[in-house]
Amino acid sequence: MAEFPSLTRRAALLGAAASGSLLMAGSGAEAQPQRPSELKIGITTFLSGPASVFGVPGRQAADMLIEEINREGGIGGVPLRAFYVDEAPGTDHLVGEYRRLVQSEGVHVMFASISSGSCLACTPLSDELRKTTVLWDCGTQRIFEEARHPFAFRTQGYGTPEILAPLLYLLQHRPDFRTLAVINQDYAWGRDSWELWKTAMDALKPGVRVVAELFPRFNSTDFSTEITRMLALRPDVILSTSWGGELVTLIRQASERRLFERSLFVLPVAEASLPQLGRTMPAGQIIGARGDHWINHPEPRDPQALRRFVEGYRQRTNEWPIYPCHHMAQAMWALRAAYKRAIEAKGGGWPNDQELAQAFRGLEFPTPTATITIREDGQGLEDQIVGLSSHGDRFPYAVPEKMILYPAANVSTPVGQKSTDWLRTLKPEMVQQAGRPLGAG
Amino acid sequence: MRRAEPLLALAAAAAMVVAALAAPWLKFVLTIALAKGMAALGIMLLLRAGQVSFGHALYVSFGAYTVAFLAPTLRDSLLLLPVAAAMATALGLVVGLFVSRYRQIFFGMLNLALSMVFFSLLEKLYHITHGTDGIRVALPTMLGQALERTSFEWAIFGVALALALLFGWFARAYLDAPMGQALAGIKTRETRLEFMGVPARHVLLSAYVLSALMAGCGGAIIAMTTRHVTPLLAYWTASGELVFIAILGGAGGVIGPFLGAVTYELVRVYAAAILAEAWQAILGTVLLLVILFAPGGLWGMLAALFRRRRAA
Fold first, then answer.
1. CB nearest B23 (choices: A10, A21, A121)
2. Cα–Cα 20 to 30 A to A92, which of A282, B167, B215, B237?
């Protein structure tokens, strides 16, 4: 019987862990919640692995904004506190951590995920646990087109406008192109984005010949085969929705072999890789930013706010802010606006989960560059700005010129429709009507 | 210690139920731990024969994707589970016929290669599997009853616990039987087995198929618990995790893998909670400490503790 002491010790350990976590779960969000002592936000982001090029800047932006908001007295007088979760270990870990944060730490709101797979796993959980979940960066169109999620909201654009806007820009900038090649990462986003592009291109400019569909292995470091093939095929246009280190490698290798002299590149997710590329990035290529938050936005809604955000981030990290920083900021600002709205609606009382979610639906909140509206299906309407890469003195890396702003409503799939069905119905007239040129340059 | 195993297993099961009652989120973590423990139990059977499989995530993910694909038609979890188990077993038999000819590093690498082939298929056959986005598993029914979330979580936790006890009991009996005893023969000297008239390949094949069955069940439970499957389940790191768990728990007894799995999951959860960006370092340190100071794993530590007490 001597093994029982060791066993009870283990059981005691578990019991202690369990009761400890119960104690921690103080402020549950029940029907009539008290104003909590702190507003807890669970944030899932990549802290390791290749996608940490997005995840770590996102986290740094969150830390910066939380400090800033807390200095100003928090949200509704309540200071914020973040709990971070690494997305890299996979779905079972992520889903477990989501539950832990909601059920044990008692977070008031979740900010979910850079990876589309993570978002697809988290949104049904938000329905079940009835916890407001802000999808702060992922782009898959499947989220709100395949199901309804009463507690999930996306505070930025998504795949369809982020692909359609660069396509419209291409059709305006180089209407006479005849051949196109695609080189995308071989995983869901690479395939999804190509399907969106192809569907829209077939509707807007039928008859373009696709000379190569290349899907190199995800996390490749060598694109020499693909580059050789494209040098031989000489497509007018090369599309790549790759991101992060892979895009940097692709551009470096392609520019060494002078592929940019033969073909025009369209890079819808280029913005995040541009600071790293520096002057290596060739000029005159079509670049996108997954939104309108270019650092050289010529006519932002609030130029001072944009400058403050950029300078604050530079001072803190000694790096240039990239789009995940802006997306994180949008999520924070949306949260602040939603709480304000919910508290007003309740006459100063602290909102419960249901009331907070109600405040998100139809919410309008300002960003430094524009105003974002959250549609009734939970999707945020973020404008898209596309331009041509150019080098100037202001920034040590490529920024866009000849920018065109595409208002989100013009390039997003209407509520209740599937993106591929909607893209099929597009008419060529759209190319001239959808966007509005920005600034003098 | 061996005689006390069943008692110890029941007591540990009771402790898990208490823990799950006390903290609802632990129920989820423990269900996953039990599922991974099952798969690690299969790995442990192979470890007894001195063979390390770096590819058992193949069967876990095969079981999980079977559930994901069949959930819309079969709907009931008690139908899905045996179907996934049968599919994984069948795959294990086909693959096993081939890999059981090999030993040591060749055995390990071939398993790894095959699981990575499956991983690539899950990623590449995008229009069928949704690639890295993965497939959502709708809430299955239980014995034809549509349960709401919390009761379903309890039900699947119960199923996992019962299955873990069943597999543990079976593996114990199996290891006592001549077929199980012969596994150690493969590890020490295979030719002797052949001289005794025991075909070594059949011995290894039967253990391999059993391990595939256990991993398939584990995968099915993971799919019904997380309710979202992605190709990451088949990635080599997932296989490595199972080997890690088996080593952490120790190959000495059938409770070892479950002990390892529970410890692994709890260490990971708490490490992630304390230091979100350095959980890998904490986990790695734990494994290093176990390898350096307790080569028999956690179970070996418990057993040594017990022996010392008895001697005293």
1. A21
2. B167
pLDDT at A32: 65
- Is the Cβ of A48 closer than 8 Å to some Cβ of chain B? yes
Confidence of residue B146 (pLDDT cuts 50, 70, 90): confident
Asked if A140 has any chain B CB less than 8 Å from its own CB, the reply is: yes
Residue found under tokens 């978002």: A119
Q: Of chain A residues 209-268, which have a CB less than 8 A from chain B? A: 218
Domain ranges in chain B are 5-235
Mean of all residue pLDDT scores within chain A: 87
Instruction: Answer yes or no: are the C-beta atoms of A46 and A52 closer than 8 Å.
Output: yes
Is the CB of residue A420 less than 8 Å away from at least one CB of chain B? no
Does the distance separating the beta carbons of A121 and B134 come in below 8 Å? yes
Contact A92 B222 (CB under 8 A): yes
Is B126–A191 a contact, with Cβ atoms under 8 angstroms apart?
A: yes
The domain locations on chain A are 33-157+304-374, 160-289+383-437
CB contact under 8 A, A17 and B276: no
Q: What would the pLDDT profile of B107-116 be if each residue is shown by its tens digit? A: 989 999 999 9
CA distances from B299 to B171, B245, B262 (A): 16, 12, 12
Spatial contact of A270 and A303, defined as CB atoms under 8 Å apart: no
DSSP A9-75: HHHHHHHHHHHHHHHH------SSPPPPSSEEEEEEE-SSSTTHHHHHHHHHHHHHHHHHHHHTT-B
Whole-angstrom distance, CA of residue B175 vs CA of residue B206: 12
User: How big is the CA angle at A138 (ends A64 and A383), to the nearest 5 degrees?
Assistant: 80
Stretches where chain A sits below pLDDT 50 are 1-30, 441
Q: How far is CA B84 from CA B73, B228, B229, B278, in A?
A: 14, 16, 14, 35
Chain A residues within 8 A of B24 when measuring between CB atoms = 99, 103
Neighbour-count burial for B147-173, b at 16+ CB within 10 Å, e otherwise: beeeebbbbbbebbbebbbebbeebbe
The structural architecture, per CATH, of the domain A160-289+383-437 is: 3-Layer(aba) Sandwich (3.40)
Q: Do B18 and A14 touch (CB under 8 A)?
A: yes
Q: Which of A47, A115, A124 sits opposite B276 (nearest CB)?
A: A47
Instruction: Name the residue in chain A with its Cα closest to that of B133.
Output: A117
Tens digits of residue pLDDT in B16-65: 888 888 888 888 889 999 999 999 999 999 988 888 889 899 999 999 99
- Element (H or E) spanning A154, and its range? strand A152-154
CA distance linking residue A181 with residue B83, whole number of Å: 43
Pick among 1.10.287.990, 1.10.8.60, 1.10.3720.10, 3.40.50.2300: CATH of A33-157+304-374: 3.40.50.2300
Longest dimension (CA), chain A: 85
Look at B132 and A89 and tell me if their CB atoms are within 8 Å. Answer: no
Question: Under an 8 A CB cutoff, do B28 and A19 touch?
Answer: no
User: A237-239 and A286-287 as β-strands: parallel, antiparallel, unpaired?
Assistant: unpaired
Q: How far is CA A135 from the centre of its chain?
A: 8
For residue B259, pLDDT beyond 70: yes
- A76-108 residues labelled b (16+ CB within 10 A) or e (exposed): bebebbbbbbbbbbbbbbbbbbbbbbbbbbbbb
Q: B194 CA to chain A: closest CA distance, Å? A: 40
Nearest-Cα distance to chain B for A107, in Å, is 13
Mutate to test the interface with A, among B7, B21, B25 (most CBs of A within 10 A): B25
